[in-house]
């Protein structure tokens, strides 16, 4: 009877222990101690001490079976964020042991000496991390003196058979320092049919923020009107931050990890985090669409999680604004004009415009409502687009797989002068199709057009289109061929009442800085060559005897030296220093040129909140190493900046090692803190360039060794 009671007591004891019955220090320390390879999510964390309490024969369990007693593991086996994996901690012989939570269902294999369990997100903490725009590199402001030049020459034959040269040129002297910049320029033109015309200009500008400025000028281009008339007066542009945010982006980390958070093209930050659930809040979203990605590197490897975002480009975020205004003289007439857009909500934007020229006023008011797939604008205008007073309507959206668009301008005085167009487009079996119909008296009433485009092969593209109106009819067929990124060609045929026509063009770009182009049309064959190095140069010729040449560029004095650069067409001048000659540089995906012999490049960019500079890693010489392929520079209020990126690039050199005049195939060279370098089959390796001699040890494959000293310019080193 006593044995029966003892047996019943024993059967009831194990479950109680498994559920967390108290264990004293004496009982824990009396349990046998094992060494086990602790594995979490199948990945080893190393060898740790293990004690198991609560089984009839502590320390033994069937291989692979779930442990029925309490499992105590050395405390160091648990990592940051896994505090709730342990229930209590006791010490034996100054070694701290933590009792594992039974919810982990730990499994011990005594033959393999492994203790394994899977992560339990329910036991891991949740943390909140606010996110902000990345701390971009702050550029250094510096004074810049520049001289931009351009010249275009064209030799042509007139109808009367005479030959002559048409030419136009420009010269602009600029100065920029900090937020202030000024320019004085002159342009001239002289043709066979027009006498020499000279047009001077002047402007001074102050940058309020990266995209906001005030400028006063004489004979400069207007901001809000088209045409050839020049403007003299004051201009201002104001642009708000206009950022949208993702409220919460959640990432689950079963084990501690390193996390890189990326939104669109921007790296928002890097963190080393413990196990658990991380909620990134207030994630800034650059641009109207993109992806927020978390790149996670943990003991199990590398993975990514992400979410796409998309906002209508037709509207500003709530509280966002964009304003442009100018006042002065347009030609010889008094003139003022202004345009303001303001985000009432994330889906609703108010647009206004008001102007006056020579006493005649013009105005427009519209409201745009938009979602991710729909955008609708309704408004009124006065003395704009050839109308006295009119209502405007515009719709763009998608219904299923069909894109739709409707646009209309309806005058209040005469509805017959209305301009209306409706369009639809979709994809059918890999073909992009489009159809539009409209009414416009400028095209003699009703008109229509249709187009079908598709790829016959990955290299061949075909497009067929047609249009019809009261004025004309035309059918066209275009065949495009692009066998590689360097080659591109197309041929087009058209049929119209005037007869058939054929045009063709082929382009070859062997490098980012060179382009050859051949064109044919109307019985005329022409060719052109363009080169973009430290100036933009182009030459062209045609079978009718026409010959042309042009050059555009800039000479810039900054940072104590003179630079030659392609034409500066944008607002901010950038002096980039890399220390690597001939390096292709891209900004926002656009090619800007190659660095000069000193590893520097001068280029211009539009004023923006951030400047994304990238280099082509494939173009780097083998002896040049790079830390990062891109650099994010904070948008500058300065009109001229210097970006020192030399620390991103390292230069190496080839060194050949010999031992008693013989090759040292597959040996090694140890340079202490600089590391160990393997030699190839010829005893050669690549070592970092150094301004001081390097001391090290050469070790041959057979174990022989000797000390070596590598001079600054040595390319062959012998063991004595």
TrEMBL record:
Residues 1-18 form the signal peptide. It comes from the Bacteria. Keywords: Signal. This is Sigma-fimbriae usher protein.
């Amino acid at each position: 009877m006593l044995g029966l009671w003892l047996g019943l007591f024993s059967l009831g004891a194990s479950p109680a222990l498994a559920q967390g019955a108290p264990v004293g220090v004496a009982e824990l320390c009396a349990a046998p101690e094992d060494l086990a390879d602790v594995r979490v999510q199948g990945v080893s964390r190393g060898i740790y001490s293990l004690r198991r309490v609560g089984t009839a024969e502590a320390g033994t369990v069937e291989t692979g079976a779930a442990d029925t007693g309490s499992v105590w593991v050395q405390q160091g086996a648990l990592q940051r964020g896994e505090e709730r994996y342990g229930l209590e901690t006791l010490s034996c012989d100054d070694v701290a042991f933590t009792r594992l939570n039974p919810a982990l269902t730990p499994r011990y294999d005594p033959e393999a000496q492994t203790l394994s369990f899977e992560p339990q997100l329910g036991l891991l903490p949740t943390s909140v991390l606010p996110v902000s725009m990345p701390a971009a590199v702050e550029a250094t402001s510096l004074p810049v003196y520049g001289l931009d030049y351009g010249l275009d020459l064209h030799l042509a034959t007139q109808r009367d058979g005479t030959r002559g040269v048409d030419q136009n040129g420009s010269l602009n002297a600029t100065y920029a320092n900090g937020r202030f910049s000024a320019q004085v320029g002159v342009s001239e033109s002289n043709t066979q049919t027009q006498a020499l015309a000279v047009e001077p200009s002047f402007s001074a500008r102050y940058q309020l923020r990266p995209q906001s400025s005030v400028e006063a000028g004489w004979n400069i281009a207007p901001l809000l009107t088209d045409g050839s008339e020049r403007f003299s007066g004051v201009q201002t542009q104001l642009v708000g931050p206009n950022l949208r945010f993702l409220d919460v982006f959640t990432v689950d980390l079963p084990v501690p990890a390193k996390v890189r958070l990326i939104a669109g093209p921007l790296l928002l930050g890097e963190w080393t985090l413990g196990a658990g659930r991380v909620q990134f809040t207030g994630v800034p979203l650059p641009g109207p669409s993109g992806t927020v990605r978390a790149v996670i590197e943990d003991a199990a490897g590398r993975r990514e999680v992400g979410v796409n975002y998309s906002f209508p480009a037709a509207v500003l975020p709530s509280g966002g604004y964009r304003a442009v205004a100018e006042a002065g003289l347009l030609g010889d007439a008094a003139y003022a004009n202004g345009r303001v857009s303001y985000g009432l909500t994330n889906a609703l934007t108010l647009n206004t415009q008001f102007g006056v020229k020579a006493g005649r006023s013009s105005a427009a008011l519209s409201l745009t409502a938009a979602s991710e797939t729909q955008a609708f604008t309704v408004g009124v205008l006065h003395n704009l687009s050839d109308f006295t007073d009119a209502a405007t309507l515009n719709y763009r959206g998608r219904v299923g797989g069909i894109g739709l668009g409707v646009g209309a301008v309806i005058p209040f005085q005469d509805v017959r002068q209305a301009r209306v167009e409706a369009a639809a487009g979709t994809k059918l079996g890999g073909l992009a199709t489009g159809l539009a119909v409209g009414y416009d008296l400028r095209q003699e009433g009703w008109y229509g057009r249709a187009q079908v485009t598709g790829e016959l092969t990955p290299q061949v593209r075909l497009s067929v289109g047609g249009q019809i109106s009261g004025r004309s009819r035309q059918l066209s067929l275009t065949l495009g061929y692009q066998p590689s990124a360097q080659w591109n060609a197309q041929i087009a045929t058209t049929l119209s009442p005037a007869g058939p026509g054929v045009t063709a063009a082929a382009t070859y770009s062997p490098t980012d800085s060179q382009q050859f182009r051949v064109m044919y049309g109307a019985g005329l064959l022409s060719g052109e060559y363009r080169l973009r190095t430290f100036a933009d140069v182009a030459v062209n010729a045609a079978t009718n005897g026409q010959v042309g040449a042009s050059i555009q560029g800039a000479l810039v004095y900054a940072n104590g030296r003179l630079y030659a650069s392609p034409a500066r067409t944008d607002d901010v001048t950038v002096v980039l220093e890399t220390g690597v000659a001939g390096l292709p540089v891209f900004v926002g995906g656009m090619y800007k040129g190659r660095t000069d012999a000193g590893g520097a490049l001068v280029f211009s960019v539009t004023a923006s909140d951030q400047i994304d500079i990238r280099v082509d890693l494939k173009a780097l010489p083998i002896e040049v190493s790079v830390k990062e392929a891109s650099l994010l520079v904070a948008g500058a209020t300065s009109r001229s900046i210097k970006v020192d990126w030399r620390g991103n690039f390292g230069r190496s050199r080839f060194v050949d090692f010999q031992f008693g005049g013989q090759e040292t195939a597959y040996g090694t060279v140890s340079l202490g803190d600089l590391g160990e370098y393997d030699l190839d089959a010829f005893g050669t390796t690549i070592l970092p360039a150094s301004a001081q001699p390097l001391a090290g040890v050469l070790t041959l494959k057979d174990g022989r060794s000797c000390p070596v000293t590598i001079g600054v310019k040595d390319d062959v080193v012998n063991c004595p």
